[in-house]
Batch of 2 targets.
Target 1
Amino acid sequence: MPHDTHDHPHALLPPDPALRVRALETILTEKGLIDPAALDEIIDTYEHKIGPQNGAKVVAKMWTDPAFREAMLTDPMPLLDEMGFYGRQGEHMVIVENTPQVHNVVVCTLCSCYPWPLLGIPPGWYKSDAYRARVVREPRAVLAEFGVTVPADKKVRVWDSTAEIRYLVVPERPAGTEGMTVAELEKLVSRNSMIGTALATEPTT
């Protein structure tokens, strides 16, 4: 049954998501419900301090420490807690490992559940309806659009995050990195490679 929305506050918000966020921020600030400086600090923290570099540290250590790798694949939470990578949106992590036989990719089909303590702020495309719907139906096509071509004889496994469980993909370690330090290896691991929509970066010669 049609109804008139002109009397509802949300009818005054612009349709573009970025503009809607800015409009909501302005309204909440004017009402004294949020502090813009505190909001900026939270965003800066997740972008620069609790960003993908945390996940990269985990991946690089798994590449170089067999005992750590085994523990992370079995029960990662105690070690993540020790490393200080435990927090809201990352209480229950599952680590999945790319291999020559399997390529993993992560999505949240219901909303945008994402491991903030390890990867920082989720990218816009991860939250989009198109990615959330298509990567489940046609993962190879979506990965190809990101520049990742998965061979026909290699399985693609899609992991659907939930409010209870979030996933981190460990990309395959690139060839020719045997002599690199953990710090050097961390630089080869990107946010997208830990979602599964990219591969680890090849080392420069």
Target 2
Amino acid sequence: MAAIESALLQTGRLDTLARQDTAVHRIDPRAKVITTACFVLLVVSFDKYTVAAMIPFLVYPLALLTVGRVPPGFVLTRLALVSPFAVVIGVFNPLIDHEPMVRLGPVVITGGWLSFASILLRFLLTLSAALLLIATTGFNRVCLALERFRVPPVFVVQLLLLYRYLFVLAREAARVLRAYRLRAIRSRGVSLRVYGSLVGSLLLRTLDRGQRVYTAMGCRGFNGILHPSIPLRFRTVDAAFVFGWCAFFIVARLYPLPQHLGHAVLEFLS
């Protein structure tokens, strides 16, 4: 519980990383949203047994990580936090699918292991791309790009409020847990029988905070639509960013680059 609490509270570091001044940060957010959407769509379009053909797609998140000066440890920590969900989805595949697919000498790899590896690789690629999009753009600018793409304003406002008050909820949960630990000194953790009361207390705090936030926003003239004052300008370099990366993704999707590279190496060695 402490690890999850710490990770939620540290998620605000994304905003700090998004305020850097690098070549990636200066790219128009609309260009990065289009590129990331193309990346995700092509990654999830692979067959369930595909693993090696997705490896070239690692170039995109690695490029954003390097040029955008995002600490690798920060991204890996976020990925590790939610990785159990991907593991739970595919962990039973090796037990269900026993069809032999690949033979490496005496070792036979079944379809279940390939599909499990494919799920983990898709998870790594798509989530890292989404994290790096926010870390090099900022959530406010991502939502502004969605608004310029004519995404319904209700959806954009919900995303902004969810992201903004996720940290408030995390701090409220941390205060509730801290109060419990101060009152239960001899307890080594939170027992199951008090979880209900803790969640109920957090719900009441959330409802009260939400009402106060809504009242404050209404007093300031909020009518359900946010109007961010962030200028956007789509330049030639932004278009080159989109077309260059999308062309690379399409080539990597249509042609199995690792397979061609392996054949070329074998021919060279022979």
